[in-house]
Amino acid sequence: MGILIYDNKKYTDEYEIVSYMADRQTLALPSSVLKFFQEIANAHSDEFGFGFENLSKKNATFLLVNVSMDITRTPILHEKIKVTTWSAGRKGIRYIRRTVIEDEKGEIIVNAESVWVLVDTLSHRIITKEDEIGFDLPECDEVCGDLRCGKIVHPDDMTLQGKRRIRYTDIDYNGHLNNCKYADFVMDFMPVDVIGKRVSALDIYFHSEAMEGDKIEIYTGEKDGFIYFHGVNNGNVCFDARCKLEQL
To answer: How far apart are CA 248 and CA 234, in angstroms?
Structure first.
């Protein structure tokens, strides 16, 4: 059970990397890390009455626009970690969130920033004013590192790596492809061998929703030390991503 800290501006909780969260190298999957971020963001908002359940009653939900994270060291199987998150304010209609993961020594091993928008679930329009639903979350001005959170410009010479059909288990309670699944796409469609390597940086930008039955074409390319991923769904850009690998 998580708790509020730092004058109730931050929320923190402890977790363990269990078997289904790790890959064949016993490293926590990037999608597992994103699931921690997703859960703690909702838990933090829920402390102030704006978790998924309460927002649903107001026909509203938060949608992730983009996420960026630097992984200094990847958590491993059975490791216990502490995840801490806080609201870093707004930029127009976008809500900025910071999240860090610490190991048992208290060292930050993952540093992340995410951007969200508040959406009306009936009209699918972006809610531009908090007072439309009474949203109020305390903000913290602490910044941990400078991340690449923003639109991703992929190389021109991208190659079709494969296609991925969206199935029932890919869909979340919002009715579309869950955000964390995109990190699995990155790993599954990696154009290079990842054995003996780990992801040290990952950025994902979400352009449009994908639904059950859709087939996403995934293109890859490399530039400036990053591997890029470009997902196209029925002729429309679905997502862009990039990651950096390093030797274990």
So the answer is: 38
pLDDT for 109-159, tens place per residue?
A: 999 999 999 888 888 888 886 656 666 788 887 776 667 878 899 999 999
Q: Note the Cα 146 to chain centre separation in Å.
A: 17
Region of residue 212 (left: phi > 0; alpha: psi -120 to 50; beta: else)? beta
Q: Say if CB 154 and CB 221 are below 8 A apart.
A: yes
Identify whether the C-beta of residue 240 lies closer than 8 Å to the C-beta of residue 152.
yes
Q: Which two tokens stand for residue 46?
A: 């829920």
How far apart are alpha carbons 83 and 104 in whole angstroms? 11
Residue among 82, 91, 87, 84 nearest 45 (CA): 87
Structure tokens at 192: 């290079």
- CA dihedral sign, ordered 133, 136, 141, 147: negative
Q: Is residue 52 within 8 Å of 121, Cβ to Cβ?
A: no
Radius of gyration of the chain (CA): 18
Going by their DSSP bridges, the two strands 94-102 and 226-233 should be labelled as unpaired
Token pair 């977790």 is at which residue? 15
226-233 vs 236-247, strand pairing mode: antiparallel
- Residue positions counted in the chain: 248
- pTM beyond 0.85: yes
Q: What is the pLDDT of residues 206-247, one digit of tens each?
A: 999 999 999 999 999 999 999 999 999 999 999 999 999 999
Distances (CA, A) of 179 to 48, 63, 89, 133, 176: 23, 9, 22, 24, 9
| Alpha carbon distance 16, 76 (integer Å) | 9
